[in-house]
Amino acid sequence: MPVNGRKRMVTITINKNQYLAEEGEIFLLTAMRLKIDIPHLCYEKALDPYGSCRLCMVEVVTCGKTEMTPACTIKVHNGLEILTDTPEVIKHRNILFELYLAEAPKSEVIKEMAAKYGVTKTRFLKKIVHDDPLLGKCILCGLCVRVCSEIMGTCAINFINRGPFTVVNTPFYEHNPDCAGCAACARVCPTNAIVFEDTEKDRVMRSWSGTTVPMMTCSSCNKPFAPEKLMHEIQSRLDPQINEDIRNMCPECRRRYISRREMKIPIT
């Protein structure tokens, strides 16, 4: 339990060495803070741990027995004992890297990460999809789908098909008017598979069947700066007393406007 606003520190064992850690912290974060290397792809602080990529598997020791568990789903508690580099963990990790090299053959992120752990080739058949909107880089971790539904509340994209034919896209591979063009999906994608393009009038989500979202124009500099649908959603949550001109300004012009106002410099 927290004491005076501080989290309780407990003793844990990692690879037979003892450390102090915050009780309740995600073990993967504890390991990162302690500079203990555990590869991972699908962990995102803004989302609940999911463990879909399975790269962060470690062995949890309980009463002399071990169990393989994703590090991102383990919460630190007193007496926790973890092994991160056993032959079983390494074997599991290497097989996964081979699978990802086949699943996302064009992903430089996967190639570099796999090479770091000594995996440069795959025994599995590489997945080849002609005109793949995700550029042969998607590993189906689900981060884009989850951030769209759980954070943005939009559900503009989802998994389509099953088994080896599973892909992520909009329903029926069509332009989806529900998409706000926020590009949160592209931000959380661990392999940089999602592509979008900003034009003078629109944001085009190339990976999502060319879904197009109109851009809002800054009321000061007249340059497009954000998707209209996204800005309307943000503005609906703002204090109604906020000046309308500021609401429709790009961040750069807004900062300049507020600075001039605070310094009592005439605003033109």
Name the features.
five-stranded mixed β-sheet; alpha+beta; 268 residues; four-stranded antiparallel β-sheet; 11 strands; Ubiquitin-like (UB roll)
Backbone CA Rg = 23 Å
Approximately how much helix is present in the residues? 25-40%
**CATH arch. level architecture of the domain at 9-85:** Roll
- The gross shape turns out to be globular
Structural class: alpha+beta
Major β-sheet strand ordering:
2-1-5-3-4
Q: How would a crystallographer describe the biggest sheet?
A: 5 strands, mixed
How many individual helices?
A: 8
Under CATH at level 1, the class of the domain at 9-85 stands as: Alpha Beta
Number of strands: 11
How is the CATH topology of the domain at 9-85 named? Ubiquitin-like (UB roll)
Element-level helix/strand string: EEHEEEHHHEEHEEEEHHH
Which parts are unreliable, with pLDDT below 50 for 5 consecutive residues or more? none
Structural description of this entry:
The chain has eight helices and eleven strands. A five-stranded mixed sheet has the order 2-1-5-3-4, covered by helices on one side. With 268 residues, the chain is of the alpha+beta class.
Task: Provide a quick synopsis of the model.
This protein has helices at residues 27-33, 87-103, 108-116, 143-151, 184-188, 228-235, 244-247, 251-262; strands at 9-14, 17-22, 57-62, 65-70, 81-83, 158-160, 167-169, 197-198, 202-205, 211-217, 224-227. The chain has 268 residues and is α+β, with helices and mostly antiparallel strands.
